[in-house]
Amino acid sequence: MWTGLLLLVALAAGEPLEDARQSFAAGRYAEAEQQALQAEPSGAALYLVGLARFRTGRPEEALEAFDAAGHAPDAPEPDAWNFNRGACLYALGRFVEAEEAFASVREGAPLARAAWINAGFAAFDAGAPDRAAQWAERAAAGASTEEALQVEELRALLAPVANEGDEAYRQGLASFDAGRFDEARALFLRAATRQPDSGRARLMAGASAWRLGSRTEAREDLTAALKLTLSPLDRRTAHQYLDLLSYGLRSSGPGAWASASLGPGFDSNVLQVGVAARDVSGANADVVTASAFAEASVGLTARLRLSDRLFAALSYGGSQRAYSGSSVRDYSLQLHRATAAVEWEAARQVRVGILAGGDLFFTGLEDFRGLQASVNANAWLAWDETAHTTTRLDLGAAGKDGLGEEFAYLTGPRLDATLSQEWRLGLANVTAWYRYRQDRIGTLEQSFTSVDETLASRTYVIPFGFTGHAVGASGRWQPLPWLTASLDADVEWRRYLEDNSLRVVTTGGDTETWNVRRRHDTRFVLGPTVSARLSGHLRLTARYELLVNRSNIDMRLTDDDAAACEGAAHLCHAYDATNGNYEKHGVMLQLEAAW
Prior knowledge:
Blueprint lengths: L17 H8 L3 H10 L4 H13 L3 H12 L7 H14 L3 H9 L8 H14 L3 H12 L4 H14 L8 H11 L3 H14 L5 H13 L2 H12 L5 H14 L9 E13 L23 E15 L4 E14 L9 E15 L2 E14 L5 E15 L5 E14 L9 E14 L2 E12 L3 E6 L6 E9 L2 E15 L2 E24 L4 E23 L4 E14 L30 E13 L1
């Protein structure tokens, strides 16, 4: 008998049973039952009584409450009601009636596939293996990873296999269904010894090890099973278990996903866009750089299994951030990004991957125009040295092109090398990394009329290319199944590749170069995030980001020598092109839907 039937809790919001619902959610089922019985009689109250009684091990009394709720004027939603009636009937050993109840759940309902799986187990226990097989076949198409594993458990009871008559295998199934996975694995391994040509017993041994959290043993059993005789469904199930045990591209398994998000935010320093460098010359305390914004995004992802050891992923992401402030609206940013990646399990615990992609940025709202385009290539080598740690080396190269004469200075190559170490600590993941970056984009020259009557013009020469060394760490913690928190922090030391300067033309026609200074910055970034899953498809995320930049280029800095501005070199911060010392605070609330 299968003991994994689920009782669906579906309490309608807005009913006058808040105390009872809170008690039920806290696991105080007896208290919830009494509170529901004391509430005004209604279908919702009787439904909650039934749920509480089932959870306290009284399926017969729970069924009575469910039946009464079904005849009330405000009867519960029929799919959840039939599902929970089926759970009660199954617990009472009334398998034919349980199958009928599960079968009443309408196709297309969120719990339809779970109901079909349960109907299959009910049919099997009712002595109708043919009907059970039909339910398994119906549930298998389009099943999620977890649902597919439940289908396999059902088919393990039905499908003829080479060791079907082996007593150890049958005992292993009984132990597995009862949740005694250590005992089940020992029995499956004994059956595999007696039937060495059949992969089914090794498959179930691997499934038992996975349920025990023994990742190494599970991988060994499942890999061995794939080398033996397996039905197509068994082979797919073995791959699904291995996906759950893997890292990298394989970890999510094959499939396709789509997402869309929308949310408001606030940026305290819009001029520091961060994605593609913009002209910030002449920035000073009088310029309004803060603005609220709205951001929308869409995403598409497909993951493909090319072979037992080769996996691929295709993705597209698009986003639009629109600033509300009139002085910074031209900094509104639209991004389109497409990537294709392939990862190969080159050896046990070793993964090698390559990625190719492209980015396309647009800026402005009223004056919408291209900002920058880039093509990217990355390669990585990852060593999963233990079940809890991974060391990874990433190498990347990009060719960037500033779109149009206005943004020509954003053209140039970029090279990256990143070494990271990941620790998987149960509910938490922590990654520490070091990155070297060389960004060889161009130099912006911006001319303006001089207020000095002895000068005909002044031109800021502002190089954007740099080399940088950065260290950082990120952490992710999931204290509850629906709640995730993360924190990212890094420090980068940038040294620019060419000198900043001010080129002047005197009224006599002479050209001079003033204030020649090599820029170097230190940047600190901190980004906490909290995300809550609201339903199977909706997630709400709150983000905060802090950027602190410290630089030797800043027109507000004080010179050690007050006379430097008048010297031959005019080495004076008053002639700096921008204020390189700044802070940027960003907050955003995002609602995301995923399918």
